[in-house]
Amino acid sequence: MEEFISADPCRFDHSILFRTLQKRTLDHRLNDSYSCLGWFSPGQVFVLDEYCARYGVRGCHRHICYLTELMDNAESGAVIDPTLLHYSFAFCASHVHGNRPDGLGTVTAQEKERFEDIKERLRLLLENQITHFRYCFPFGRPEGGLKATLSLLERVLMKDIATPVPPEEVKKVVRKCLEKAALINYTRLTEYARIEAAPDKDTEMLNQASPEKKLEDILQLADLCIEVLQQNEEHHSEAFAWWPDLMAEHAEMFWSLFAVDLDSALGAQAQDSWESFPLFQMLNNYLRNDSHLCNGKFHKHLQETFVPLVVRYIDLMESSIAQSVHRGFEQETWQPVNNGSASSEDLFWKLDALQIFVYDLHWPEPEFSQHLEQRLKLMACDMIEACVKRTRIAFEAKLQKISKSADFRLPHHVCTMFNVLVDAKKQSTKLCVLNGGLEQQYHSKIDDLIEETFKEMISLLVSKFVAVLEGMLAKLSRYDEGTLFSSILSFTVKAASKYVEVPKPGMDLADTYIMFVRQNQDILREKINEELYVEKLFDQWYCSSMKSICIWLTDRLDLQLHIYQLKTLIKIVKKTYRDFRLQGVLEGTLHNKTYETIHNRLTVEETTISVSDGGGLQGITMKDSDEEEG
User: Fold this and answer.
1) What pLDDT does residue 502 have?
2) How far apart are CA 5 and CA 7, in angstroms?
3) What is the rounded distance in angstroms from the CA atom of residue 54 to the CA atom of residue 47?
4) The pLDDT value given to residue 124
5) Which of 130, 201, 486, 515 could form a disulfide with 177 if both were Cys (CB 3.0 to 4.6 A apart)?
6) Phi first, then psi: what are they for 289, rounded to 5°?
7) Backbone angles phi, psi at 560, to 5 degrees
8) Rounded CA gap, 607 and 133, in Å?
9) pLDDT of 348 higher than 90
10) pTM
11) CA distance 188 to 138
12) Are 537 and 425 in contact (CB under 8 A)?
């Protein structure tokens, strides 16, 4: 040590010693517990500056050595700040090209040769870092590092410090790096996915996996690919802001590598396998929201791959739904299920689920998307039309089996058929409406069909109700003036009334009919879901009943009503008026001309009976009909 201290400094090669000193200082600095990115501490910089000033170490030599050591460490995996590399490179370049700001820069021939070697080596290092940008700058760290690297690459590509490099030349280099990056990123990603999926299996065993396993693996791989590109967009897109088209090309190349595995996995699936649709939805939802990748090369390839599957799926679903309509309504029990019957609920659920499925695909091509929507709307119209027609046929068949006696109570399954049509009308507004010409007209036809079917069913049901009234009126006809039965009955009643209280058959008949009306009104009001059609039914029922009674009275215009006929009709008319008013029939409908005719005739008959028969009607009268209770 004493020999070293007493030695003459002028006899040593301080350039070599400084290189050793700087290398050891940098090694010590990089071994610190925190990352320095290659920067010296202030104390270390002071020592190195003092050494250079004391022993005449050239600045260009100092930075060339510094660049060499920094690149050595960077190639070994250490994280070096590209800004630091840029400073040292710019210092050396200003000496080599002789255009320092102060004009005092000098350089030796050896330093110039070493600089050219370092420049080429630095270019390769930077290109490698850009190629491995995901791993050299993970999650964009160090902040601004990738952007500084690209800036340094542009500086390195300059032939001299004053002449800028053409933008196309830089772009060409970056494009080449990103092309390599796509292959590297995808290769590493597939290796990671393979390890995650089956760490203990080799490649050959994975290739022999079942179609379900292949689809599961490609779905997981697609998710990882989307995550990688999202990370690139989030952490690295700002650095490549000058070349957004290059990042789009990088992503397209990345997806083109994925397309090979995608086609292989889909090719292994069965013809009628639909488990791959979630894969399409995942990829399409990502691609359609990316302005650079939407309808790009891979996106179009994805659409072309899945178009036959979508068409085939819709074809099979249409056939399946049609068969379910045919079989379901043949075996329908018409038990109420939710808003309709089992068959109608199943039909509307399938149609809605199919339309939701196609909507969730978010098909990016407008023409094919419109074609799918139009086809599903027209399919829904056809299926709902079949449902309505079959319900109409079943309704008529059920009514034909029902008796016309006053014991008739409307079966619940008849109300269910009304509810099926009500639900069909509601569903058609959602399932059949499509903005545009013919499709809108087509939906209008379905709407008209449902309305017409409602009118027919209401007419059929009202006819059934009126038939009960006509049966009751037919029984009253036996009391017509001048008939043998009327004469015998009148004589028998008068003779028997001297000894016992004679029952009043007319009141039993009226009470039975009134109970029939009220109970069926309650059933309709409770079981049919749509108030509008219940009101229409009540209006038509009331008008038809009054019309039937009016016709019956008109046929007996020249005859005086028997007292039992009169009492029965008065009670029926009064209770019918009152009951239908309570059910919401409007006053204008209740007080129509037919009712006025009936009211006037019965009032006249009541007056005649009161004059001719001392006993009168025993409290039954047409007066104050709207106030009578019971």
Assistant:
1) 47
2) 6
3) 10
4) 95
5) 130
6) -95, 0
7) -85, 135
8) 109
9) yes
10) 0.78
11) 14
12) no
